[in-house]
Amino acid sequence: MPHPNDKLARLLRTQPAKLDFLSVLAEADRQKLAGDIEQARQAHSKHIRGSMEEALNQLPWLLRAPIRKLFGV
What we know:
It is a single chain. The longest helix has 30 residues, at 27-56. Helix 1 packs parallel to helix 2 (27-56). By secondary structure, this protein is mainly α. It is elongated. Helices cover 66% and strands 0% of the residues. The chain has one domain (6-71). The protein starts with 5 loop residues before the first helix and ends with a helix.
């Protein structure tokens, strides 16, 4: 039987038992929390990618490709 906090535990990279304190929340609230965490991670990733692109634009053109490859951008 799946634990009620499985999705949150996966998002937070922890064990569901460590999130037992969240069991006071209704299922809808836990789902909203999970959605908010996913949305925050996506916004964070987008911000980091944008910042990296800005930083790369400060480098000479010939260095951009090797730096992109080095950082996996």
